[in-house]
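Researcher: Quick test of sequence recovery. Tokens follow.
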């Protein structure tokens, strides 16, 4: 009996030595893989073994090695997927910057078109436009300077009532419109009466304001000043009318119109302050100075008639 027990002890010791040797070899292989691969695909998991106790579960390159009583190198039937940290997870490729900007531009274009369409519909309602009968009101007694409406079916623009308090005409909607809040320069028209006038005729001095700077024309050419310096000596207070927004700056206005409105070219009847204001409004807003402010042009026209 003692002999049998001795044999069993020797056998158990031999098994323990073999298990220890196998464990050392396994650790050695693991260290080699860690040094060679940088530990990228080597890890440890906790799994429930055959004995019901938590035992170490090693996997190397997707092949799991399970420890059990029969063999320390029995491999799993299915390879295990190595664990990956959040930093190693494959990221979703981002869209190129150009593609993202193109999508943003398309969205902004759609919003702008929808806004312009809504505005045109509202303006057509104001002129009483009938799509079926093609009828509309050409004159708008409530129209303001700088307002914009769509072109009518006869390709003319809605006009203001010249007998109203603000007798100035609108600009066609085919021209570019800047909506409130958009980046641009504010344009205003300033007009002062010249003398008392007489029935059917009143002369005016006019100028244009681009933001805070006034642009006017005199014998010195195009004069620029802050506020309304060209109207200071007038008897009556100038009437200032908002005309709209534009992307064209005052510097561009002076550079372009300065070639035509030079020093010494002022003519009271044919090339005066109103001539400059009319051209400036057209250059900035594609609008025109209302004929009511251009009384001297009428005098010039009659003066040029043959006797």
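Model:
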């Amino acid at each position: 009996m003692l002999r049998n027990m001795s044999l069993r002890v020797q056998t158990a010791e031999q098994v323990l030595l073999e298990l220890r040797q196998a464990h050392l070899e396994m650790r050695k292989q693991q260290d080699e893989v860690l040094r060679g691969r940088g530990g990228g695909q080597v890890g440890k998991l906790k799994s429930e073994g055959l004995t019901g106790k938590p035992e170490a579960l090693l996997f190397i390159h997707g092949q799991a090695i399970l420890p059990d009583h029969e063999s320390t190198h029995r491999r799993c039937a299915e390879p295990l997927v190595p664990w990956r940290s959040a930093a190693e997870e494959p990221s979703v490729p981002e869209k190129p910057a150009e593609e993202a900007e193109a999508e943003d531009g398309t969205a902004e274009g759609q919003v702008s078109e929808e806004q312009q369409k809504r505005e045109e519909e509202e303006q057509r309602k104001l002129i009483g436009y009938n799509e079926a009968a093609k009828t509309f009101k050409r004159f708008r007694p409530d129209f303001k300077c700088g307002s914009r409406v769509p072109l009518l079916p006869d390709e003319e623009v809605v006009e203001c009532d010249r007998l109203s308090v603000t007798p100035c005409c609108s600009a066609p909607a085919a021209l570019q419109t800047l909506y409130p809040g958009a980046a641009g320069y504010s344009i205003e028209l300033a007009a002062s009466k010249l003398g008392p006038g007489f029935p059917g005729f009143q002369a005016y001095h006019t100028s244009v304001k681009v933001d805070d700077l006034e642009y006017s024309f005199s014998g010195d050419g195009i004069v620029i000043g802050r506020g309304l310096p060209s109207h200071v000596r007038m008897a009556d207070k100038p009437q200032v009318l908002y005309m709209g927004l534009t992307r064209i700056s005052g510097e561009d206005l002076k550079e372009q119109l300065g070639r035509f409105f030079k020093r010494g070219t002022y003519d009271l009847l044919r090339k005066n302050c109103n001539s400059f204001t009319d051209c400036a409004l057209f250059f900035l807003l594609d609008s025109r100075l209302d004929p009511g402010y251009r009384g001297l042009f009428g005098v010039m026209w009659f003066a040029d008639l043959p006797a």
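The CA atoms of residues 47 and 53 lie 8 Å apart.
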